Amino acid sequence: MKPKSEVEIDVRYAETDQMGVVHHANYLVWFELARTRFCLDAGTPYPEIEDLGYFMLITQAQQNYRLAACYGDSVKVTAWLDWVASRSLQFSYQVERGGQLLTTGHTRHIWVRRESRQPCSMPVSLRETFLKLAEQTTFKRS
User: Which residues are CB-neighbours of 83 under 8 A, at least 6 positions away?
Assistant: First the structure.
């Protein structure tokens, strides 16, 4: 079973629309919280990735809604690493309330050099860690 990280979130009024339902854009913020927790739990905090001179830029974000999260709910957001390729990777997410699945999604990222903002291969120093987290022995063909 792939390593996963979780964050608990109490839905705030500011995250909802007039009906008290969480606005769709906030799920991406929650995904980011879970993704950065995943990196931290994996021993590679995102600030360290930036200190190495790299960013993971999002190239795609997808969300699939089943049920609404609402003001006052407590939700659990879970993140895991689906796959890695030499220049890209994909994280997946799920949002639950009391064990009930509300939303699923994924984000795809490319590696970019911090200074030049140009796409590049995954840093050599992170390859073993990210392959292990994705339960892969070699890069996926992208």
Answer: 89, 90, 134, 136, 140
Instruction: Label residue 62 by pLDDT band (50, 70, 90).
Output: very high
Domain 4-133: give its CATH code.
3.10.129.10
Residue 77 to residue 6: CA distance in whole angstroms: 5
Tokens of 113: 């050099």
Find the catalytic residue in 10, 17, 41, 73: 17
Domain boundaries, the chain: 4-133
Tens of pLDDT, residues 22-55: 999 999 999 999 999 999 999 999 999 999 999 9
pLDDT digits 0-9 by tens, 89-125:
999 999 999 999 999 999 999 999 999 999 999 999 9
Spatial strand order of the sheet with 100-113 comes to: 4-10, 74-84, 88-97, 100-113, 54-65
Q: Is 82 a catalytic residue?
A: no
